[in-house]
Amino acid sequence: MRFTPEELEAARDRLVPDVAASGLRVLFCGINPGLMSAASGHHFARPGNRFWPVLHAAGFTPRQFRPAEQDELLAHGLGITNVVARATAKADELTAQEYREGGRLLAEKVARLRPRWLAVAGVTAYRVAFDDKKAAIGPQQRMLGDTRIWALPNPSGLNAHWTVAAMAEEYGRLRAAAFAEGGGA
Hints:
Elements: H1 5-10, E1 26-30, H2 35-40, H3 51-57, E2 78-82, H4 96-113, E3 117-121, H5 123-129, E4 138-144, E5 147-152, H6 164-180
Parallel strand pairs: 1-2, 1-3, 3-5
Antiparallel strand pairs: 4-5
Helix pairs in contact: 3-6, 4-5
């Protein structure tokens, strides 16, 4: 999909609906939708975003899905949401207050949907949203009810110090934990 600069700018502040259902194994949580995601209506839609290749390389999906196929994740026990719902060109346009409010709303969503794992793709966003300044990549001590939390590297192409292979390894650790609980793939 190609969008003009005007179409992308018109997508600012738009919401991208969650891909979610009750009882998922993993609810992936991005920071917030980018303008390409808001314009297309699909999560992680920017061509340089590595979410879809990493998800496949980590073994979560049988093949690399395209953003337009995001609803197929539900059949694999996976979903997608965001810490902050509104679309921006860059995550640095968000305020600390938006992150904290997003964390509060996310906790409510998790209480309602009860996924086994909440996987926040962006440890910095997790730190601010949940006021956990020392959080590191990996499983967290904090839980939301019965839901465990895992902080993942942000798959944005701007996060260049994490390679696809290194991200796939970390996402794979989450996959092993999520699917070790109760079997199934």
